[in-house]
């Protein structure tokens, strides 16, 4: 499929596993040059070798996105190898502890904010001058349904993703007229190492099978996921790699929706995708297939107004 991504330079953070890995592979399959970031260089090398072996063009840039110096070096390395960066995917993130509010310390909050929010701030700050110079760029922040539909647990994680959504909107308003479009993709429940480790812990604590822990999680925490299954990283990657096509489609039908409150996204179905269009026609907030995979209580339906 031609998604207008051939030859584009793409940086994906947190790309050695899970959603980030699938996103990097999807861009490589579209003919983009892809820089994959994560902390563990050995894990990264395996994925990069696999992409290059399959005819793609990929490089590894090991760095900790919570470290400002590492981020500077990472972006310089990508620019020196690829000449520039066109697309940044801020994907690196994690949940910290699956805990309730009273169990979390200031350190827990700061650590999750640092990984999920400030990493995106840092990497975006380092990449932005390159996007502005070429008057073209795409920044895709991997948020979460938890940013708009939080569970009782992990309030630090939920708040970090809500802040990421808000940051995305600010950035999209600041830079859209310079040709830099900033969006979020908000996955729901996707089977990655992050999720399988969480389910393994829950299974162990209850003395049950991990598959039963998944069924239990879906039944109690995600009853509105119509397919009654977790999504795959590849399904999320497909949405991310299609963003260019989706943005064009949204632009061509002139999606301009006025909204006042954060949760009053209008949802439009364009090309079979469920879109949440913010009050800026260029700022399209993609919810991970809200209708097909579903979202928790009050999700798509509530936002439909
Ligand atoms: N899975 C879901 O259901 C789900 C749902 C909603 C949103 N999300 C979001 O999707 C994103 C990816 O999640 P995932 O489930 O694919 O996670 P994952 O399986 O845990 O993979 C995380 C990736 O990020 C890297 N990473 C972690 N900390 C890093 C750091 N400080 N610097 C650089 N790289 C780092 C990891 O490699 P190293 O450990 O080697 O650094 C790994 O490559 C996250 O932002 C998450 O919040 C996931």
What does this structure look like?
The chain is α/β, with parallel strands linked by helices and 305 residues long. The protein folds into two domains: 9-188, Rossmann fold; 191-230. The chain is 46% helix and 15% strand. Strands 3-2-1-4-5-6-9-8-7 form a nine-stranded mixed β-sheet, with helices on both faces. Strand 7 and strand 8 (273-277) form a beta hairpin. It is globular. It starts with 8 loop residues before the first strand and ends with a helix. Residues 250-305 have low confidence and may be disordered. The chain binds NADP nicotinamide-adenine-dinucleotide phosphate (NAP). NADP nicotinamide-adenine-dinucleotide phosphate binds next to helix 1, strand 2 and helix 6.
DSSP, total strands: 9
CATH H-tier superfamily of the largest domain: NAD(P)-binding Rossmann-like Domain
Question: Could you describe the largest sheet, including whether it forms a barrel?
Answer: 9 strands, mixed
State which percent range the strand residues make up: 15-25%
Bound molecules: NADP nicotinamide-adenine-dinucleotide phosphate
Short structural description:
This protein has 305 residues and is an alpha/beta fold. It has helices at 18-29, 41-53, 68-82, 106-134, 155-175, 193-206, 210-221, 233-241, 243-252, 300-303, and strands at 9-12, 33-38, 57-62, 87-90, 137-142, 180-186, 266-270, 273-277, 284-287.
């Amino acid at each position: 499929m031609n998604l207008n991504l051939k030859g584009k330079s793409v940086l994906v953070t947190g790309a050695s596993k899970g959603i980030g890995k699938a996103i990097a592979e999807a861009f490589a399959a579209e003919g983009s040059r892809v820089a994959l970031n994560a902390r563990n260089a050995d894990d990264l090398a395996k994925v990069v070798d696999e992409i290059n072996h399959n005819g793609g063009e990929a490089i590894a840039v090991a760095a900790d996105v919570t470290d400002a110096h590492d981020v500077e070096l990472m972006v310089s390395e990508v620019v020196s190898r690829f000449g520039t960066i066109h697309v940044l995917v801020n994907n690196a993130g994690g949940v910290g502890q699956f805990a309730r509010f009273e169990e979390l310390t200031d350190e827990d909050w700061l650590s999750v904010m640092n990984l999920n929010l400030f990493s995106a701030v840092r990497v975006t700050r380092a990449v932005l001058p390159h996007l502005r110079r070429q008057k073209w760029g795409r920044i895709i922040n991997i948020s979460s349904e938890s940013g708009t539909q939080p569970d009782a647990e992990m309030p630090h994680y939920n708040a970090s993703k809500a802040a990421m959504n808000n940051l995305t909107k600010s950035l999209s308003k600041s830079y859209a007229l310079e040709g830099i479009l900033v969006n979020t993709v908000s996955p729901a429940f996707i089977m990655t190492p992050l999720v399988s480790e969480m389910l393994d812990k829950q299974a162990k604590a209850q003395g049950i099978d991990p598959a039963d822990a998944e069924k239990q999680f879906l039944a109690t925490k995600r009853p509105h996921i119509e397919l009654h299954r977790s999504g795959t990283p590849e399904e999320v990657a497909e949405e991310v790699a299609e963003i260019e096509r989706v943005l064009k489609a949204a632009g061509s039908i002139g999606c301009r929706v006025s909204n006042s409150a954060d949760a009053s996204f209008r949802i439009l179905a364009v090309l079979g995708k469920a879109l949440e269009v913010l009050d800026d026609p260029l700022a399209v907030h993609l919810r991970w297939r809200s209708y097909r995979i579903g979202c928790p209580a009050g999700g798509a339906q509530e936002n439909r107004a």
